[in-house]
Amino acid sequence: MLTCSNLVNIVLFETVIKGTIMGTLDQLMNLFKAIVRVNNMYLKEVGAKFGISPAEGKILLFLANNPSMDTAQEIAQGRLMPKGIVSRGVESLVSSGYLIRNTDSGDRRRIHLNLTEKSEPIVLALRERMRMMREAIFSGFSEEDEKVLDMQLTRLWKNAMEAGKNE
């Protein structure tokens, strides 16, 4: 599976071994870094207001946006977050009353995470900041531009996933 970490390693390999940076990959990496930086800035703003970390904000937002993917493992995979960070974030959110754990009726080893009513203002604030981030990033894009970009990024993602199957 091709991960962000693997993509960084590919770029570093090209830089160190070949003495060159592949332009398109370098541009994509810089784009992703810039988006992550803006995303983290917004997460920190909301986190400071509610006393949660950016990782905890990512967890809450992921659960709010993906209600059927409600285990720590699914969060880690879906957000490409280390399991340890997800585990610590979940523990903090449970002790703060923002999440509750529910044991799966069919498999007691499987723990489902559910947002509490107390988390609603945080989720609303996070969604608003993400909406603002999207507006800022897509400023000047027409609806057609966004569709073309979505199509191209989807194709890149599928190609990367296919290329990374043997990893």
Based on the model shown, name its key terms.
single chain, 167 residues, mainly alpha, Arc Repressor Mutant, subunit A, two-stranded antiparallel ribbon, 7 helices, 2 strands, 69% helix, globular, disordered N terminus
Q: What can you see in these coordinates?
A:
This protein is mainly alpha-helical and 167 residues long. It has a domain at 39-138: Orthogonal Bundle (Arc Repressor Mutant, subunit A), CATH 1.10.10.10. It is 69% helix and 6% strand. The chain has seven helices and two strands. The chain has helices spanning 4-18, 23-50, 54-65, 72-79, 83-95, 120-137, 143-163, and strands spanning 99-103, 111-115. Strands 1-2 form a two-stranded antiparallel ribbon. α2 (23-50) packs across α3 (54-65), α2 runs antiparallel to α6 (120-137) and α3 (54-65) crosses α6 (120-137). The longest helix has 28 residues, at 23-50. It is globular and about 45 Å long. Mean pLDDT is 86; it is low at 1-8 and 15-21.
